[in-house]
Design goal:
The complex is a heterodimer. Chain A is of the alpha+beta class. Chain A is 32% helix and 26% strand. Chain A folds into four domains: 128 residues, no CATH class; 108 residues, DNA polymerase, Y-family, little finger domain (Dna Ligase, domain 1, 2-Layer Sandwich), CATH 3.30.1490; 35 residues, no CATH class; 91 residues, no CATH class. Classes of the chains: A alpha+beta, B alpha/beta. β9 of chain A pairs antiparallel with β5 of chain B, so a sheet runs across the interface. Chain A: This is Protein ImuB.
Chain lengths: 472, 310
């Protein structure tokens, strides 16, 4: 057992990282040792990263304890780079997090200064000057490389900057020079954000936090109104939206909602979230209120503006789309489904149920050419899994049963039609899948069933009978 | 004193509104006014109805199934659930045929248990039954309140030619209040709503009509030369009982549904397909007469004729 992290008090009495716990206890018997929980640390870092979304949508995680924020084009919203840095650090400090930060045009330099120097805003011309006195560890190198460099007396980055590059590369590999160039801003280093960047986004910062659902919805409508012009400029409408709610104490809630058609109308966007908030009601704890509301358009599609006609046909489409959106937002996408016919003669594969929200805008969906071949009548209700039926007496070799027992009830067959032989699809089921002989059967009480026999009499294994559907 | 006539006027207006909502005959004064209106404005006040094309049934239904309200279709046990669903879907096909622009879909709000017990609607089967699977939406809510919310929203949205709400049995959360609420919503929106009660008892509800549907032996296929194909299973046939209507006597008849023409026909019960007499599991006398106790009560009346032997 070794120490992995220390607080200030422990550092003050001279404990070090990687020290054995027994040794540390010997130095300070009252030491409070807590077992490390990397998952919890990770959750905390994720939470902070979520919170940092308030500054920029481009937030990337860095290792176990760092965050990169790409603030290109965001600083003026917070009164300049210096003010932004101070805002971040002071807010984090108020939340009880001891954070250090730096702003520069190279992520590598910011990393090094935040950890080894005095964090500040570094201008482009003084990058080399600031970097030179830092230890070589500030270059994000492996421990062995750092140790090897220090053995050679190359203790500061400044020693490396002016050293000839070729011998360095030969001895320590290209990685060292890459890191050096990245720290100096000579090499581009992309920061990969942890969330996909929304194509459009608008937000509202509030002086007084809001708690009530109506207020949130009202504000959502207003934000949607401000998004409308940008959507119009692009000739697009949003298909997927995300409402990001920043709570006063730093928690961030994300509520996503989809639409069946590209949307622009602020009222309909707000209506989506009114259903969605109903659905997530219990998970959304307003606490002391939300201070920032942001509406992201995560997916948008071309919006074909159509003129209203006198017949009101378009109105009907709008109301159907509105209904589908409301239901999908409130009860989930899978609740409402539409059926599509496929090219397959196996009954359960001939029809695919897909969420209506995805298929509504695409129009007709797959063409129904799959049913052009002549086939027998199909039942009104089909069992997703065929149920076993007990047949004691059937016409041999391939006739309908005389009577059968299904769900412990004996049905006497009075009429039957069939068989309709459907071979299974060898390219899916393999060459050994047996064909099915389907019969339409009417029993003496007028119930009509669709049952099939798998296998043939006189062969092994003996045939089995299944109930697959019921006719009206 | 001046305000009194105004208040009376308001009161009458409110009464009239309530009567209109409940579908009751309006009070005399308002009725007279409406008659005058009807003479002037034509038949716009008349409630839209869907005639089934069978004279006897349409007369009992006062013109047909209401197109702006709730109607109930019931099956007595889960075995008959597909028959009742078939009748409801046949009605839906008729409503869809009549709906404007013929582009309005059907919404089927399924019940989870019934779907497990009797299967889910099958698109190819719907096609064979005279419906367009492209214009059929299937909703599978988890709970009854979700189903009720769905039904209400669907009716209000006005996007559907007909909304079908399938309910299993007689749930406690779906009583008179809820059915009245649905009925009022449907009437306000002017859209039909069919309540499909599977394996349920008769229950007081706010519906105008209630049908009991039982399966009946299917019709026989007609060959092109109009001869019958013996032993074939043709168009579906339903045994229909109109349990609830203005007419106190329940009406019972047998209907055949033609999926190709999307039309109902009255059917006669074929002789050969009459259901067998209800057989008891153990024929013979039930119990021997007791020795030392009073005899069981004798049956009233006397036997006039025995059952047919053959």
């Amino acid at each position: 057992m070794r120490l992995t992290a220390l607080d200030e008090a422990a550092e003050a009495i001279g404990l070090r990282k990687n020290q054995a716990v027994a040794e540390a206890r010997a130095i300070c018997p009252k030491l409070d040792v807590v077992e490390e929980d990397p998952a919890a640390d990770r959750r905390l870092l994720d939470g902070i990263a979520d919170w940092c979304d308030r500054y920029t949508p481009l937030v990337a995680l860095d290792g176990r304890d760092g965050l990169f924020l790409d603030i290109t084009g965001c600083t003026h919203l917070f009164g300049g780079e210096k003010a932004l840095l101070q805002d971040v650090l002071s807010r984090l400090f108020q939340m009880g997090i001891d954070a250090r930060g730096a702003i520069s045009s190279a992520p590598g330099l910011s990393w090094g200064i935040a950890r080894f120097g005095n964090g500040d805003v570094i201008a482009d011309e003084e990058m080399e000057l600031v970097l030179s006195p830092l230890p070589v560890a500030a270059l994000r190198l492996e421990e062995e490389t750092v140790a090897a460099l220090q053995k050679l007396g190359l203790k500061q980055v400044g020693d490396l900057i002016h050293a000839p590059r070729a011998p360095l590369a030969r001895r320590f590999g290209a990685h060292l020079l890459l890191r050096l160039d990245q720290a100096l801003g000579l090499d581009e280093e992309p920061v990969s954000p942890r969330r996909p960047v929304a194509s459009l986004s608008a937000e509202r910062r509030l002086a007084e936090p809001v708690q009530a659902e109506e207020d949130i919805l009202h504000l959502t409508g207003q934000i949607a109104l401000s998004l409308k012009t940008s959507l119009e400029e692009r000739g697009a409408g949003g298909r997927a939206f995300e409402l990001v709610l920043f709570r006063v104490d730093g928690r961030v809630f994300r509520v996503a909602a989809g639409a069946s058609q590209p949307l622009r109308d602020p009222r309909r966007i707000a209506a989506l979230f009114s259903e969605r908030l109903q659905a997530v009601h219990d998970d959304l704890d307003a606490g002391y209120g939300f201070e920032i509301l942001r509406l992201n358009v995560t997916r948008h599609e071309a919006f074909d503006a159509a003129q209203e006609d006198f017949a009101g046909d378009r109105q009907k489409n709008v109301s159907l789309a509105g209904f589908v959106d409301r239901v999908s937002a409130r009860l989930g996408e899978d609740c409402l489904q539409s059926f599509h016919l496929c090219e397959s003669h196996v009954p359960e594969r001939a029809v695919i149920a897909a969420p209506a929200i995805r298929t509504l805008s695409s129009g007709k969906g797959p063409e129904n050419s799959g049913v052009s071949w002549s086939r027998g009548e199909r039942p009104l209700r089909l069992f997703p899994r065929p149920e076993a039926v007990e047949v004691s007496l059937a016409e041999v070799p391939e006739g309908p049963p005389e009577s059968f027992r299904w769900r412990r009830m004996l049905h006497r067959v009075s009429r039957s039609e069939g068989p309709e032989r459907l071979a299974m699809e060898w390219w899916i089921d393999g060459p050994d899948a047996g064909a099915r002989d389907y019969f339409r059967i009417e029993d003496d009480t007028g119930h009509r069933f669709w049952i099939y026999r798998e296998g043939l009499y006189g062969q092994l294994p003996p045939p089995r009978w299944f109930m697959h559907g019921i006719f009206a | 004193m001046v305000q009194a006539p105004m208040a009376r006027e308001q009161l009458f207006a409110l009464r009239e509104e309530i009567a209109r909502l409940e579908g009751k005959p309006v009070p005399a004064m308002a009725a007279a006014r409406q008659e005058a209106l009807a003479e002037r404005g034509g038949r716009d006040r008349e409630k839209p109805r869907l005639p089934l094309g069978v004279t006897m049934l349409d007369e009992a239904l006062e013109g047909g199934v209401p197109l702006d309200g709730l109607s109930e279709i019931r099956s007595s046990c889960l075995r008959d659930a597909t028959a009742s669903a078939g009748f409801a879907l046949a009605l839906s096909a008729l409503m869809q045929k009549q709906a404007t622009a013929d582009a309005t879909p059907i919404l089927w709000i399924a019940d989870r248990v019934t779907s497990m017990e009797t299967g889910v609607p099958y698109a190819l089967g719907l096609k064979d039954f005279g419906l367009d699977p492209q214009r059929f939406l299937h909703a599978a809510p988890r709970k009854l309140d979700e189903a009720l919310w769905l039904a209400e929203t669907a009716v209000e949205s006005g996007a559907f030619a007909v909304t079908l709400l399938e309910v299993k049995g007689n749930p406690a959360h779906f009583g008179l209040t809820e059915s009245r609420r649905l009925s009022l919503r449907a009437r306000a929106a002017g859209r039909p709503l069919l309540l499909l009660r599977q394996s349920g008892e008769e229950e007081a509800s706010s519906t105008a009509f209630r049908f009991l549907v039982e399966p009946a032996p299917a019709a026989i296929r007609l060959l092109p030369d109009r001869s019958m194909l013996d032993g074939s299973i043709g168009h579906p046939v339903f045994r229909l009982t109109l349990e609830k209507s203005r007419n106190p006597a329940p009406l019972s008849l047998i209907l055949e549904w033609n999926p190709h023409d999307r039309q109902f026909f009255p059917a006669r019960e074929p002789e050969y397909a009459r259901p067998p007499l209800k057989r008891t599991a153990h024929p013979g006398s039930r119990l021997s007469a007791s020795l030392n106790r009073p005899d069981r009560p004798q049956e009233m009346g006397s036997v006039m004729a025995f059952d047919q032997a053959s």
